[in-house]
User: Fold this.
Amino acid sequence: MARPDGRAQRGAALTDETPRPERGTDAQDDASTAEERMRSALGPELAGDAVVAAGEVASPPRRGIRRKLFMGIAVIVALQLAGLFLFPPFAPDDPDGSEGSYEFPRDAITANFELPAPHVVVDLDPSHPPSAELLTFDLTIPSSIFTGWIVMVVLVVLVLLLSLGIRQVPGKRQNALEYVYEGLANFATSLGGPAARRYVPVFVTFFLFIVLSNWSGLLPFVGRTLELRAPTSDVNVTIGLALVAFVMFHVEGVRALGVRGYLGKFFSLKGFQEGPANGVIALFVGFLEFLLEFVKPVTLSMRLFGNIYAGEIALGVISALTVFLIPVAMLGLEVLLNFMQALIFAILALMFTIAAIAKHDDHEEHHETHEPEMPEGNIEPELPRGAVAA
Assistant:
């Protein structure tokens, strides 16, 4: 039974008022016939919206997309050329090229090959020389930490600028800020459910800092100067981020379940109710799960470090050998991969936290309520034979 509202009249008005390009008489007759068939098939409520949506889908793309694409490629090539002249690819032990003649491609490759150990910008303890090992515990400010501070300042300033003058009716800057935050928040809650809402700020912070740190290594002058290096290309930084996440989800697990309840997830004695063998097996499996908790920060840190470090080396070497088209395609691929790595780290940190606050032995059956499925378009489901619509 059709509902007596004004949606049918509005749909017909939208259909009649939609601007159309000039067409011949035959084309107009065909279009009107198609609209009449659509009204008879979908009903007057949906026909107007369907016709308008079909017109928008069939409209040609904007001409400015191709122009913006070419402008972006030109900017990337210009930045590559500027980086080549401002920061020439000399070897790190010969930054000005005075010790010997430049040999291509050997020097081009070695100049872009970063060592895993970061360069020390400031040595806070001159009595002990900084270590050149991969993992360092020296009292120093390396290039990765220095660049990480710059990324933090850029992120804070960007958020402050976008959040200035927040109003009930948002402007362009506020719309951009809300779009990013709400998009990430909705994505997090779609993965972790209602329990993830508490950890949305941490999820967004992890993602934004890591993605900007990843993208900082794609700039021409980062990595070619000793004082600047992408933070996530240093394993010390990625291990620090992983340890923050590790502490967070264990502290949240203890907060939600208590010390006894949280440890009971791994060392449960309920298995002995079904026999000694089941109890021993349950304790052994719980012990393995407890050991796997300490593997999580290792996998988090090494996955992020390996992808970013290898991508920077590959991009630097290819950019030094071929300046133009190949680096542009490689740079586009690295932008996407760096985005995905940041998203993966934030997702895993969130899901590990959700798993930590959930009870391990919660096997209660959840009875689903079977509701009638509502098809698309707000069309009511078919009524049983003999029933009267409300």
